[in-house]
Amino acid sequence: MMNSYLKSRSGTAVARLGLGLGLAALTFVGGCEVRVAAPPPPPPPPRVVYSPPPPPAPAVDVEVQATEAPPPLPDYEQPPPPDDGYLWTPGYWAWGGGGYYWVPGTWVQPPRVGVLWTPGYWGFVGGVYAFHAGYWGPHVGFYGGVNYGFGYVGVGFAGGRWVGNSFAYNRAVTNVTNVTVIHNTYNETVVNNVTVNNRVSFNGGAGGIAAQPTAQERAAAAEPHVPPTPAQHQHVQEALHNPALAARANGGHPAIAATPRPAAFSGPGVVGARGAAPAAVAAAQSRAPGGAAAAEHAPGAAPGNPAGRPGTPGQPNGAAPNTARPGTPGQPNGAAPNNAAHPPTPAAKAAPPPKKAPPAKPKPEDRKRDER
Predict the structure, then answer these.
(1) What confidence score (pLDDT) does residue 277 get?
(2) Residue 232 domain-assigned?
(3) What is the domain range of residue 246?
(4) Which residues contact 333 (CB under 8 A, 6 or more apart)?
(5) In the prediction, which pLDDT does 314 show?
């Protein structure tokens, strides 16, 4: 009996102890606040801004490829600049319409003060000929070592320089004759130390010019550039749509080799290349106001006109040697008057000599004096 009683009491105590511990645990847990971190909100979707694709670049800015080499550069005379502030951009062969066509050299107004023109050039790479478009920049970059003439002798530019906000022309290599309009000129002989064939029009490959960019030309390539002006784009388009400028039509001797202004393919100042058909040159120039009269007085139109003589290879600017007579005072540039383009007018028929007047009758007083 005693044992049963003790067991009963012991079990009750254990039960009470367990109940107490359970209540204590509940009290402890109830006093604690359990916080569960909420997941961060998803990031907002990225803002989509629609940018329309850029318009296609004009043909002059695009690298064009061809499987055949461009023709040699033609010989031609540089027309005088039409006004102060125009810069020379040399002619070159472009590709279009299934063949090469000539883009005449021309005088262009630069897009802003202080920039110079780096001509485009053809380079042979990877089995094809690729055209590298020209551009405006503070310095002249690499143009394949091609001797375009008139200051572009293969490296740099010697045809002029900026002096403040004005462009000064080097008359040693540019055809500046209207000095009554263009006053900012100088004379500086250009020595061409680049040994190249003056008529090769491409870099690299068989028969091409083996030239690599200099350190200065690499630096110029990294500078900010300005693309060709709208007038230059129009000039290229006019050349592309002129059948007479296709190489297959002119045999590499375009009748319009250079112009005084962009897209001015007819009229005074248009120059034909050496070897161009005289009829084609006359036809191109006679389409200007004035017709044949304008063509007669245009540079390159009349045989024997010194201004129309094409360039001679080997000259620093690709121009003919100066074999003119010493200048005549009173001419705008001190040059001899150009009489070749204007043959002397036949002398007019001499007027008959005047009839002798009859002798005057003596006066009465004179008669009396004689009688004495």
Answers:
(1) 85
(2) yes
(3) 59-308
(4) 176, 177, 178, 179, 327
(5) 33
